[in-house]
Amino acid sequence: MTSWLLLAEAGASAAGTPEGGLFDLDATLPLMAVQVVLLTFILNSLFFRPVGRAVEDREGYIATSRAQAKEKLAQVERLEADLKEQLKDARLQTQKLIQEAEQESDKLYREAIGLAQAESNASRESARREIDSQRTAALGQIRGDADKLADQIVDRLLAAS
Amino acid sequence: MAPPIIPVLPLNLPLAELEVGKHLYWQLGNLKIHGQVFLSSWVVIGALLALVAIGTRKLERNPGGVQNLLELVWDYIRDISREQIGEKAYRDWLPFIGTLFLFIFVSNWGGALIPWKLIHLPSGELGAPTADINTTIALALLVSLAYFYAGLSRKGFRYFEYYVDPTPIMLPFKIIEDFTKPLSLSFRLFGNILADELVVAVLAFLVPLIVPLPAMFLGLFTSAIQALIFATLAANYIGEAVHEEHH
Protein backbone atom coordinates (compact mmCIF):
# COMPACT_ATOMS: atom_id res chain seq x y z
CA MET A 1 0.00 0.00 0.00
CA THR A 2 2.75 2.42 0.96
CA SER A 3 4.50 1.67 -2.26
CA TRP A 4 1.44 2.89 -4.14
CA LEU A 5 1.37 6.11 -2.18
CA LEU A 6 5.04 6.55 -2.81
CA LEU A 7 4.36 5.86 -6.44
CA ALA A 8 1.74 8.58 -6.60
CA GLU A 9 4.05 10.96 -4.83
CA ALA A 10 6.79 10.03 -7.17
CA GLY A 11 4.51 10.77 -10.08
CA ALA A 12 3.44 14.06 -8.59
CA SER A 13 6.97 15.17 -7.84
CA ALA A 14 8.11 13.96 -11.21
CA ALA A 15 5.55 16.14 -12.95
CA GLY A 16 8.00 19.02 -12.79
CA THR A 17 10.78 17.06 -14.37
CA PRO A 18 10.08 15.15 -17.57
CA GLU A 19 10.86 11.80 -16.04
CA GLY A 20 7.45 10.15 -16.11
CA GLY A 21 5.19 8.72 -13.45
CA LEU A 22 1.62 7.74 -13.07
CA PHE A 23 0.23 11.28 -13.21
CA ASP A 24 2.53 12.65 -15.84
CA LEU A 25 0.47 15.30 -17.59
CA ASP A 26 1.90 16.78 -20.76
CA ALA A 27 0.98 17.61 -24.34
CA THR A 28 -0.57 14.17 -24.69
CA LEU A 29 -3.70 15.63 -23.09
CA PRO A 30 -4.62 18.35 -25.62
CA LEU A 31 -3.48 16.27 -28.56
CA MET A 32 -5.63 13.38 -27.41
CA ALA A 33 -8.56 15.77 -26.99
CA VAL A 34 -8.05 17.04 -30.54
CA GLN A 35 -7.80 13.47 -31.77
CA VAL A 36 -11.06 12.52 -30.07
CA VAL A 37 -12.83 15.57 -31.46
CA LEU A 38 -11.61 14.66 -34.95
CA LEU A 39 -12.74 11.11 -34.37
CA THR A 40 -16.16 12.45 -33.38
CA PHE A 41 -16.51 14.30 -36.66
CA ILE A 42 -15.22 11.37 -38.72
CA LEU A 43 -17.48 8.88 -36.97
CA ASN A 44 -20.39 11.27 -37.33
CA SER A 45 -20.06 11.48 -41.07
CA LEU A 46 -19.03 7.84 -41.51
CA PHE A 47 -21.19 6.07 -38.97
CA PHE A 48 -23.78 7.95 -36.94
CA ARG A 49 -25.36 9.95 -39.72
CA PRO A 50 -25.66 7.24 -42.41
CA VAL A 51 -26.59 4.46 -40.02
CA GLY A 52 -29.03 6.72 -38.21
CA ARG A 53 -30.62 7.64 -41.51
CA ALA A 54 -30.84 3.97 -42.51
CA VAL A 55 -32.39 2.99 -39.20
CA GLU A 56 -34.83 5.88 -39.14
CA ASP A 57 -35.78 5.35 -42.77
CA ARG A 58 -36.54 1.77 -41.93
CA GLU A 59 -38.52 2.76 -38.86
CA GLY A 60 -40.53 5.19 -40.99
CA TYR A 61 -41.01 2.56 -43.66
CA ILE A 62 -42.20 0.04 -41.09
CA ALA A 63 -44.52 2.57 -39.48
CA THR A 64 -46.10 3.55 -42.80
CA SER A 65 -46.40 -0.04 -43.98
CA ARG A 66 -47.97 -0.92 -40.68
CA ALA A 67 -50.43 1.92 -40.96
CA GLN A 68 -51.21 0.93 -44.54
CA ALA A 69 -51.68 -2.68 -43.56
CA LYS A 70 -53.96 -1.64 -40.72
CA GLU A 71 -55.97 0.51 -43.10
CA LYS A 72 -56.23 -2.36 -45.54
CA LEU A 73 -57.26 -4.70 -42.78
CA ALA A 74 -59.97 -2.29 -41.68
CA GLN A 75 -61.12 -2.01 -45.27
CA VAL A 76 -61.21 -5.76 -45.63
CA GLU A 77 -63.16 -6.08 -42.41
CA ARG A 78 -65.60 -3.44 -43.56
CA LEU A 79 -66.00 -5.20 -46.91
CA GLU A 80 -66.46 -8.51 -45.16
CA ALA A 81 -69.19 -7.11 -42.93
CA ASP A 82 -70.77 -5.52 -45.97
CA LEU A 83 -70.70 -8.76 -47.92
CA LYS A 84 -72.04 -10.69 -44.96
CA GLU A 85 -74.91 -8.26 -44.71
CA GLN A 86 -75.55 -8.65 -48.42
CA LEU A 87 -75.36 -12.39 -48.15
CA LYS A 88 -77.87 -12.38 -45.30
CA ASP A 89 -80.19 -10.17 -47.29
CA ALA A 90 -79.86 -12.42 -50.32
CA ARG A 91 -80.55 -15.48 -48.21
CA LEU A 92 -83.65 -13.89 -46.75
CA GLN A 93 -84.79 -12.85 -50.18
CA THR A 94 -84.32 -16.29 -51.65
CA GLN A 95 -86.19 -17.80 -48.78
CA LYS A 96 -89.00 -15.38 -49.34
CA LEU A 97 -88.94 -16.10 -53.06
CA ILE A 98 -89.01 -19.81 -52.46
CA GLN A 99 -91.89 -19.41 -50.08
CA GLU A 100 -93.74 -17.25 -52.52
CA ALA A 101 -93.14 -19.66 -55.34
CA GLU A 102 -94.31 -22.53 -53.22
CA GLN A 103 -97.41 -20.65 -52.28
CA GLU A 104 -97.95 -19.72 -55.89
CA SER A 105 -97.55 -23.23 -57.15
CA ASP A 106 -99.79 -24.46 -54.37
CA LYS A 107 -102.40 -21.96 -55.36
CA LEU A 108 -102.06 -22.85 -59.03
CA TYR A 109 -102.32 -26.51 -58.15
CA ARG A 110 -105.39 -25.93 -56.07
CA GLU A 111 -106.93 -23.77 -58.77
CA ALA A 112 -106.20 -26.33 -61.44
CA ILE A 113 -107.59 -29.09 -59.27
CA GLY A 114 -110.68 -27.02 -58.52
CA LEU A 115 -111.12 -26.18 -62.17
CA ALA A 116 -110.74 -29.77 -63.24
CA GLN A 117 -113.11 -30.92 -60.57
CA ALA A 118 -115.67 -28.33 -61.53
CA GLU A 119 -115.28 -29.28 -65.16
CA SER A 120 -115.63 -32.93 -64.45
CA ASN A 121 -118.60 -32.23 -62.23
CA ALA A 122 -120.19 -30.20 -64.96
CA SER A 123 -119.56 -32.78 -67.64
CA ARG A 124 -120.88 -35.50 -65.36
CA GLU A 125 -123.95 -33.44 -64.65
CA SER A 126 -124.54 -32.78 -68.32
CA ALA A 127 -124.01 -36.42 -69.14
CA ARG A 128 -126.51 -37.41 -66.51
CA ARG A 129 -128.91 -34.87 -67.77
CA GLU A 130 -128.55 -36.16 -71.26
CA ILE A 131 -128.97 -39.71 -70.11
CA ASP A 132 -132.08 -38.63 -68.23
CA SER A 133 -133.53 -36.84 -71.19
CA GLN A 134 -132.71 -39.67 -73.50
CA ARG A 135 -134.23 -42.10 -71.07
CA THR A 136 -137.37 -40.06 -70.82
CA ALA A 137 -137.41 -39.73 -74.55
CA ALA A 138 -136.88 -43.44 -74.94
CA LEU A 139 -139.49 -44.16 -72.35
CA GLY A 140 -141.89 -41.88 -74.12
CA GLN A 141 -141.17 -43.59 -77.38
CA ILE A 142 -141.53 -46.99 -75.84
CA ARG A 143 -144.77 -45.89 -74.28
CA GLY A 144 -145.92 -44.59 -77.64
CA ASP A 145 -144.85 -47.78 -79.31
CA ALA A 146 -146.56 -49.79 -76.65
CA ASP A 147 -149.77 -47.78 -77.12
CA LYS A 148 -149.52 -48.26 -80.83
CA LEU A 149 -149.02 -51.97 -80.43
CA ALA A 150 -151.84 -52.20 -77.98
CA ASP A 151 -154.08 -50.33 -80.41
CA GLN A 152 -153.07 -52.69 -83.19
CA ILE A 153 -153.62 -55.67 -80.97
CA VAL A 154 -156.99 -54.32 -80.05
CA ASP A 155 -157.78 -53.58 -83.65
CA ARG A 156 -156.79 -57.06 -84.75
CA LEU A 157 -158.71 -58.69 -82.03
CA LEU A 158 -161.78 -56.61 -82.79
CA ALA A 159 -161.46 -57.30 -86.45
CA ALA A 160 -161.13 -60.99 -85.94
CA SER A 161 -164.10 -61.29 -83.74
CA MET B 1 14.21 10.80 -10.32
CA ALA B 2 14.19 7.33 -11.84
CA PRO B 3 10.87 6.03 -13.12
CA PRO B 4 9.31 3.88 -10.44
CA ILE B 5 9.51 0.20 -11.10
CA ILE B 6 7.62 -2.25 -8.93
CA PRO B 7 9.50 -5.47 -8.39
CA VAL B 8 6.68 -7.95 -8.30
CA LEU B 9 8.73 -10.97 -7.47
CA PRO B 10 11.81 -10.91 -5.33
CA LEU B 11 13.62 -13.25 -7.67
CA ASN B 12 14.51 -11.47 -10.84
CA LEU B 13 12.79 -13.37 -13.63
CA PRO B 14 13.14 -11.67 -17.00
CA LEU B 15 9.38 -11.06 -17.15
CA ALA B 16 8.84 -10.32 -13.51
CA GLU B 17 8.98 -6.62 -13.85
CA LEU B 18 5.99 -4.38 -14.10
CA GLU B 19 6.47 -0.94 -15.47
CA VAL B 20 4.19 1.76 -14.19
CA GLY B 21 4.61 5.38 -15.00
CA LYS B 22 7.24 4.72 -17.61
CA HIS B 23 6.52 6.35 -20.91
CA LEU B 24 7.84 6.36 -24.42
CA TYR B 25 8.51 10.06 -24.93
CA TRP B 26 8.21 11.69 -28.29
CA GLN B 27 9.54 15.18 -28.70
CA LEU B 28 7.22 17.49 -30.62
CA GLY B 29 8.88 20.87 -30.80
CA ASN B 30 9.46 21.57 -27.16
CA LEU B 31 6.45 19.49 -26.15
CA LYS B 32 6.70 15.98 -24.85
CA ILE B 33 4.01 13.44 -25.60
CA HIS B 34 3.47 9.84 -24.59
CA GLY B 35 4.17 7.84 -27.71
CA GLN B 36 2.79 4.55 -26.47
CA VAL B 37 -0.60 6.13 -25.78
CA PHE B 38 -0.81 7.52 -29.27
CA LEU B 39 0.37 4.29 -30.88
CA SER B 40 -2.28 2.24 -29.13
CA SER B 41 -4.93 4.90 -29.67
CA TRP B 42 -4.18 4.84 -33.40
CA VAL B 43 -4.64 1.10 -33.41
CA VAL B 44 -7.95 1.56 -31.61
CA ILE B 45 -9.13 4.33 -33.91
CA GLY B 46 -7.98 2.36 -36.93
CA ALA B 47 -9.94 -0.69 -35.79
CA LEU B 48 -13.02 1.45 -35.17
CA LEU B 49 -12.81 3.18 -38.53
CA ALA B 50 -12.19 -0.12 -40.33
CA LEU B 51 -15.24 -1.67 -38.71
CA VAL B 52 -17.36 1.34 -39.55
CA ALA B 53 -16.07 1.53 -43.10
CA ILE B 54 -16.80 -2.15 -43.70
CA GLY B 55 -20.22 -1.95 -42.11
CA THR B 56 -21.46 1.15 -43.92
CA ARG B 57 -20.13 0.33 -47.36
CA LYS B 58 -23.54 -0.72 -48.60
CA LEU B 59 -26.41 0.22 -46.31
CA GLU B 60 -29.52 -1.76 -47.03
CA ARG B 61 -33.02 -1.83 -45.71
CA ASN B 62 -32.58 -5.48 -44.82
CA PRO B 63 -29.39 -5.24 -42.80
CA GLY B 64 -26.92 -8.08 -42.85
CA GLY B 65 -23.50 -8.85 -41.43
CA VAL B 66 -21.55 -5.92 -40.03
CA GLN B 67 -24.37 -3.48 -40.75
CA ASN B 68 -26.48 -5.39 -38.26
CA LEU B 69 -23.81 -4.99 -35.60
CA LEU B 70 -23.41 -1.29 -36.35
CA GLU B 71 -27.14 -0.74 -36.15
CA LEU B 72 -27.24 -2.55 -32.84
CA VAL B 73 -24.46 -0.27 -31.56
CA TRP B 74 -26.21 2.80 -32.96
CA ASP B 75 -29.46 1.82 -31.35
CA TYR B 76 -27.74 1.24 -28.03
CA ILE B 77 -26.04 4.65 -28.16
CA ARG B 78 -29.28 6.31 -29.19
CA ASP B 79 -31.03 4.74 -26.22
CA ILE B 80 -28.34 6.01 -23.85
CA SER B 81 -28.36 9.54 -25.19
CA ARG B 82 -32.12 9.79 -25.61
CA GLU B 83 -32.74 8.57 -22.11
CA GLN B 84 -30.21 10.94 -20.54
CA ILE B 85 -30.44 14.03 -22.74
CA GLY B 86 -34.09 13.95 -23.65
CA GLU B 87 -36.07 13.75 -26.84
CA LYS B 88 -35.43 17.34 -27.93
CA ALA B 89 -31.67 17.71 -27.87
CA TYR B 90 -30.28 14.20 -28.07
CA ARG B 91 -29.74 14.24 -31.82
CA ASP B 92 -27.07 16.95 -31.58
CA TRP B 93 -25.11 15.05 -28.98
CA LEU B 94 -25.53 11.48 -30.13
CA PRO B 95 -22.27 11.50 -32.17
CA PHE B 96 -20.28 12.83 -29.22
CA ILE B 97 -21.72 10.36 -26.74
CA GLY B 98 -21.32 7.56 -29.27
CA THR B 99 -17.71 8.45 -29.98
CA LEU B 100 -16.91 8.55 -26.27
CA PHE B 101 -18.55 5.20 -25.74
CA LEU B 102 -16.96 3.52 -28.73
CA PHE B 103 -13.51 4.99 -28.18
CA ILE B 104 -13.44 4.06 -24.49
CA PHE B 105 -14.98 0.66 -25.07
CA VAL B 106 -12.63 -0.31 -27.89
CA SER B 107 -9.66 1.16 -25.98
CA ASN B 108 -10.47 -0.84 -22.86
CA TRP B 109 -11.11 -4.07 -24.69
CA GLY B 110 -8.17 -3.50 -26.98
CA GLY B 111 -5.97 -3.04 -23.94
CA ALA B 112 -7.22 -6.29 -22.51
CA LEU B 113 -7.42 -8.42 -25.66
CA ILE B 114 -4.58 -7.33 -27.95
CA PRO B 115 -1.27 -8.99 -27.01
CA TRP B 116 0.64 -5.72 -26.76
CA LYS B 117 3.51 -7.40 -24.93
CA LEU B 118 4.68 -8.89 -28.21
CA ILE B 119 5.68 -5.42 -29.35
CA HIS B 120 8.70 -4.10 -27.55
CA LEU B 121 9.14 -0.39 -27.13
CA PRO B 122 12.39 1.25 -26.12
CA SER B 123 10.64 2.57 -23.04
CA GLY B 124 7.24 2.04 -21.46
CA GLU B 125 4.77 -0.47 -22.81
CA LEU B 126 1.67 -0.47 -24.95
CA GLY B 127 -1.72 -0.87 -23.33
CA ALA B 128 -5.16 0.61 -23.26
CA PRO B 129 -4.99 4.33 -24.11
CA THR B 130 -7.51 4.86 -21.32
CA ALA B 131 -5.00 3.60 -18.76
CA ASP B 132 -3.13 6.88 -19.21
CA ILE B 133 -4.32 9.82 -17.13
CA ASN B 134 -3.82 12.22 -20.05
CA THR B 135 -6.39 10.42 -22.17
CA THR B 136 -9.03 10.24 -19.47
CA ILE B 137 -8.56 13.88 -18.46
CA ALA B 138 -8.77 14.88 -22.11
CA LEU B 139 -12.05 12.99 -22.45
CA ALA B 140 -13.42 14.39 -19.20
CA LEU B 141 -12.53 17.97 -20.14
CA LEU B 142 -14.20 17.46 -23.48
CA VAL B 143 -17.32 16.41 -21.60
CA SER B 144 -17.08 19.56 -19.46
CA LEU B 145 -16.73 21.75 -22.54
CA ALA B 146 -19.56 19.87 -24.18
CA TYR B 147 -22.05 20.42 -21.41
CA PHE B 148 -21.13 24.08 -21.01
CA TYR B 149 -21.50 24.54 -24.75
CA ALA B 150 -24.76 22.58 -24.78
CA GLY B 151 -26.26 24.65 -21.99
CA LEU B 152 -25.09 28.01 -23.28
CA SER B 153 -26.02 27.38 -26.90
CA ARG B 154 -29.47 26.13 -26.00
CA LYS B 155 -30.41 28.51 -23.23
CA GLY B 156 -28.01 31.42 -23.52
CA PHE B 157 -27.24 33.06 -20.20
CA ARG B 158 -30.33 31.50 -18.71
CA TYR B 159 -28.08 28.47 -18.40
CA PHE B 160 -26.69 29.97 -15.21
CA GLU B 161 -30.12 29.80 -13.63
CA TYR B 162 -29.22 26.16 -13.19
CA TYR B 163 -26.67 27.22 -10.59
CA VAL B 164 -29.24 28.86 -8.34
CA ASP B 165 -31.90 26.27 -8.85
CA PRO B 166 -33.87 25.61 -6.70
CA THR B 167 -32.26 28.02 -4.20
CA PRO B 168 -29.20 30.30 -4.34
CA ILE B 169 -27.77 28.23 -1.48
CA MET B 170 -26.92 25.65 -4.12
CA LEU B 171 -24.55 28.02 -5.92
CA PRO B 172 -21.26 26.97 -4.25
CA PHE B 173 -22.11 23.30 -4.55
CA LYS B 174 -22.95 23.59 -8.21
CA ILE B 175 -19.72 25.44 -8.85
CA ILE B 176 -17.80 22.73 -7.03
CA GLU B 177 -19.68 20.18 -9.12
CA ASP B 178 -18.19 21.68 -12.27
CA PHE B 179 -14.78 20.72 -10.95
CA THR B 180 -15.69 17.38 -9.45
CA LYS B 181 -17.45 16.16 -12.57
CA PRO B 182 -14.36 15.96 -14.82
CA LEU B 183 -12.23 14.89 -11.87
CA SER B 184 -14.44 11.94 -11.01
CA LEU B 185 -14.99 11.03 -14.66
CA SER B 186 -11.30 10.94 -15.48
CA PHE B 187 -10.08 9.27 -12.31
CA ARG B 188 -12.79 6.63 -12.32
CA LEU B 189 -11.93 5.53 -15.83
CA PHE B 190 -8.18 5.82 -15.39
CA GLY B 191 -8.18 4.00 -12.04
CA ASN B 192 -10.38 1.17 -13.17
CA ILE B 193 -8.51 0.44 -16.35
CA LEU B 194 -5.04 0.81 -14.89
CA ALA B 195 -5.98 -1.30 -11.89
CA ASP B 196 -7.42 -3.97 -14.13
CA GLU B 197 -4.28 -4.06 -16.24
CA LEU B 198 -2.10 -4.21 -13.14
CA VAL B 199 -4.14 -6.98 -11.52
CA VAL B 200 -3.98 -9.08 -14.66
CA ALA B 201 -0.27 -8.40 -15.09
CA VAL B 202 0.56 -9.20 -11.47
CA LEU B 203 -1.47 -12.39 -11.52
CA ALA B 204 0.08 -13.39 -14.82
CA PHE B 205 3.53 -12.91 -13.33
CA LEU B 206 2.72 -14.88 -10.22
CA VAL B 207 0.84 -17.74 -11.87
CA PRO B 208 1.12 -17.59 -15.63
CA LEU B 209 -1.56 -20.21 -16.34
CA ILE B 210 -5.33 -20.27 -15.87
CA VAL B 211 -5.38 -18.25 -12.62
CA PRO B 212 -5.39 -14.84 -14.35
CA LEU B 213 -8.33 -15.88 -16.54
CA PRO B 214 -11.11 -14.98 -14.08
CA ALA B 215 -9.41 -11.65 -13.47
CA MET B 216 -9.23 -11.14 -17.25
CA PHE B 217 -12.94 -11.84 -17.67
CA LEU B 218 -13.71 -9.56 -14.76
CA GLY B 219 -11.50 -6.98 -16.46
CA LEU B 220 -13.46 -7.26 -19.71
CA PHE B 221 -16.66 -6.82 -17.76
CA THR B 222 -15.31 -3.80 -15.86
CA SER B 223 -14.01 -2.29 -19.08
CA ALA B 224 -17.39 -2.49 -20.76
CA ILE B 225 -19.13 -1.13 -17.68
CA GLN B 226 -16.67 1.77 -17.46
CA ALA B 227 -17.32 2.72 -21.08
CA LEU B 228 -21.05 2.62 -20.41
CA ILE B 229 -20.67 4.66 -17.21
CA PHE B 230 -18.56 7.30 -18.88
CA ALA B 231 -20.92 7.68 -21.81
CA THR B 232 -24.00 7.66 -19.60
CA LEU B 233 -22.60 10.25 -17.21
CA ALA B 234 -21.45 12.47 -20.06
CA ALA B 235 -24.93 12.28 -21.56
CA ASN B 236 -26.44 12.92 -18.16
CA TYR B 237 -24.36 16.07 -17.63
CA ILE B 238 -25.31 17.36 -21.06
CA GLY B 239 -28.93 16.50 -20.34
CA GLU B 240 -28.75 18.42 -17.07
CA ALA B 241 -27.36 21.42 -18.90
CA VAL B 242 -30.03 21.50 -21.62
CA HIS B 243 -32.88 20.57 -19.33
CA GLU B 244 -35.73 23.06 -19.47
CA GLU B 245 -37.68 23.72 -16.33
CA HIS B 246 -41.38 23.43 -16.82
CA HIS B 247 -42.89 26.41 -15.10
Describe what this molecule looks like in 3D.
- The complex is a heterodimer of chains A (161) and B (247).
- By secondary structure, chain A is an all-alpha fold.
- Helix content of chain A is 91%, strand content 0%.
- Chain A has helices at 2-14, 28-160.
- The termini of chain A are far apart.
- Mean pLDDT of chain A is 87; it is low at 1-18.
- Chain B is mainly alpha-helical and 247 residues long.
- Chain B contains six helices and four strands, in the order ββββαααααα.
- Chain B has helices spanning 35-55, 66-85, 90-113, 133-155, 171-206, 212-242, and strands spanning 5-7, 17-19, 25-28, 31-34.
- In chain B, β3 (25-28) and β4 (31-34) form a beta hairpin.
- The longest helix of chain B is centred in the last third of the chain and has 36 residues, at 171-206.
- Chain B is globular, with a radius of gyration of 21 Å.
- Mean pLDDT of chain B is 86; it is low at 8-16.
- At the A-B interface, α1 and α2 of A face β4, α1, α2, α3 and α4 of B.
Key structural traits:
heterodimer, A: 161 residues, mainly alpha, B: 247 residues, two-stranded antiparallel sheet, globular
Low-confidence stretches of chain A: 1-18
Strand content of the residues of chain B, in percent? Answer: 5-15%
Secondary structure class of chain B reads mainly alpha
Helix content of chain A: over 70%
Q: Give the assembly state of these chains.
A: heterodimer
Query: Largest protein interface?
Result: A-B, 45 and 56 residues
What characteristic shape of chain A results from the CA principal axes?
Answer: rod-shaped
Largest sheet of chain B: 2 strands, antiparallel
**What is the element string of chain B, with H for helices and E for strands?**
EEEEHHHHHH
Strand residue content of chain A:
under 5%
Shape of chain B: globular
The tally of beta strands of chain A, per DSSP, is: 0
By secondary-structure content and strand pairing, the structural class of chain A works out as mainly alpha
Instruction: Note poorly predicted spans of chain B.
Output: 8-16
- Could you tell me the mean pLDDT of chain B? 86
In whole angstroms, how far apart are the ends of chain B? 59 Å
